[in-house]
Amino acid sequence: MSIAIMSSGGDCAGMNPAIKYFVERSIFSGLKPYFIYDGLEGLIDGNIKEATFTDVSGIIHLGGTIIGSSRSKRFFDKQYRQTAFSNLTKVGIDKIIVLGGDGSFRAMDIFCGEFDLKFVGIPSTIDNDIYGTQYCLGVDTALNIIRSSIDSIRDTAASFKRAFVVETMGKECGYLALVSAITSGAELCLIPEMPYDLKHQKKQILTELQKGRRYVICVVAEGMDMTQQMVRWLEDEIGMETRATVLGHIQRGGNPTVFDRLMASQFVEKSIDRILSKEICKDVIVYKDSEFEFVDINYIASNKYQIDDDLIQMYKKDY
């Protein structure tokens, strides 16, 4: 029996550990593992190769994904999905593990509904915005990169009595910004999911500055599109020289944390067991309340992710 793994959509730290564990677990389970290179585009182009232990030697500490990734418009055209299925059939693959987000999972749901294929999706996105799971592969590494960056920014901010606006990734989801603001002690945090009151914040910050505060850190989610606006606000309303730092794609790379590596191994192990145990499998593995579960892709696709209200209340209470 053959089984393949594919990365789809944005890369994240933790994908390479998952790829390594996939090859090892597959071989130990009597399966022939394959790599689908460059995501859905590679699936259409037939960029599929058998994987060995040698292929995954020395990759566990690397960020990104050694098998590449992509986003594909062609895959929405059935003729290209037919081509992709023919490519899989040539090498006898009928089972696929997908490292990606809900968009990738929906594409595979359509694909596996049309052809005799099974798949399990492993949530892999630093945005952590997939409904039904409290954790996605890569988010822990991203949070640690942001933490390190803000800690470094705080040093220079305090030295020069400056304010800094730090923009995090996350598209329309403010999870990275909110958790980073809480764990970094930021004075301001702006995310789409939480109302803000700059008049109240102005009064509080000015009071703290009068009492000896030397700097201000403001964390803004990219989905707010307010980074430069907050720079101007801090300069005009607070009276502090202000700099903006857009962390950008640095958040997607880097050495995977211990937690992301451990979760990668558990996601893969349970996903392979699942795909072998079911005749029909179009599932996504999720992690909730320290437990692993499997849910149908429709459960994820029909609901919208929301940040845990406890996190929002924690920030409101503390700040």
Distinct helical segment count = 11
Number of domains: 2
Lateral strand order in the biggest sheet: 3-2-1-4-5-10-11
What about the largest sheet?
Answer: 7 strands, mixed
Report helical residue fraction: 40-55%
CATH architecture of the largest domain: 3-Layer(aba) Sandwich
pLDDT averaged over residues: 95
Low-confidence stretches: none
Give the strand tally: 11
Q: What letter string, H or E per element, gives the SSE order?
A: EHEHEHEHEHEHEHEHEHEEHH
Instruction: Please identify the top-level CATH class of the largest domain.
Output: Alpha Beta
Query: Which topology of the largest domain does CATH recognise?
Result: Rossmann fold
| Beta-strand percent range | 15-25%
End-to-end Cα distance, whole Å, is: 56 Å
Query: Which overall shape is indicated by the principal axes computed on the Cα atoms?
Result: elongated
Radius of gyration: 22 Å
Written description of the protein model:
The protein has helices at 15-28, 39-45, 78-90, 102-114, 139-160, 175-184, 198-210, 227-238, 258-277, 297-301, 309-318, and strands at residues 2-7, 32-36, 48-50, 93-100, 118-123, 163-168, 188-190, 216-221, 242-246, 282-288, 291-296. It is of the alpha/beta class and 319 residues long. The protein has two domains: 2-138 and 256-306, Rossmann fold (3-Layer(aba) Sandwich); 140-253, Phosphofructokinase domain (Rossmann fold). Strands 3-2-1-4-5-10-11 form a seven-stranded mixed sheet, with helices on both faces. Strands 7-8-6-9 form a four-stranded parallel sheet, with helices on both faces. Strand 4 (93-100), helix 4 and strand 5 form a beta-alpha-beta unit. Helix 5 crosses helix 6 (175-184) and helix 6 (175-184) packs parallel to helix 11 (309-318). The longest helix has 22 residues, at 139-160. The chain starts with a strand and ends with a helix. 46% of the residues are buried.
